[in-house]
Amino acid sequence: MNPFKQLGDLKKMRDQAMAIQRELQSEEVTVEQNGVQIIISGDQKIKELKSNGRSDNDIKEAVNEAVKKSQEVAARKLQQMGGGLQGLLGGGQQ
Predict the structure, then answer these.
(1) For residue 89, what pLDDT band results from cuts at 50, 70 and 90?
(2) pTM for this structure?
(3) CATH number for 46
(4) Which domain holds residue 30?
(5) Residue 45 is assigned to a structural domain of this protein
(6) Quick check: is 80 in a domain?
(7) Looking at residue 90, what is its pLDDT?
(8) Rounded Cα–Cα distance for residues 66 and 37 (Å)
(9) pLDDT in tens, 1-43
């Protein structure tokens, strides 16, 4: 077992994670529900919220839906990274 290789593998994993984080920051999900419009980034930061005088409950429901959709975007990105991580962690070896 080579400790320098492990350090290199960890750096590669960190670099991949940071790249995915940057990608998620640039992704946007728009949800329109019950007269509420929300734009949320893939890293779950609300960029815009328009309520058109809707109730707090309508806003809360729309925010929850937007967060759910942004989590789906993040999950897809992490799945893409997953194949690379398995190789780094030795998941593909028997």
Answers:
(1) low
(2) 0.65
(3) 3.30.1310.10
(4) 3-74
(5) yes
(6) no
(7) 54
(8) 9
(9) 677 777 788 888 888 888 888 888 898 999 998 889 999 998 8
pLDDT computed for residue 84 by the predictor: 55
Residue recorded with tokens 């960029």: 47
Tokens of 69: 């959709």
In a domain, 7, yes or no: yes
**Over 50: is that where the pLDDT of 49 sits?**
yes
Q: Could you give the C-alpha distances from 58 to 3, 17, 43, 61, 78, in angstroms and in order?
A: 54, 34, 23, 5, 30
The count of structural domains within the chain is: 1
Spatial contact of 59 and 50, defined as CB atoms under 8 Å apart: no
- Is 92 part of a structural domain of the chain? no
pLDDT on residue 79: 83
Helix axes 56-89, 3-26, angle to 10 degrees: 150
Specify the DSSP element, H or E, that contains 76.
helix 56-89
Q: Residue 92: its pLDDT value, please?
A: 46
Other CB atoms within a 10 A radius of the CB of residue 31 amount to 19
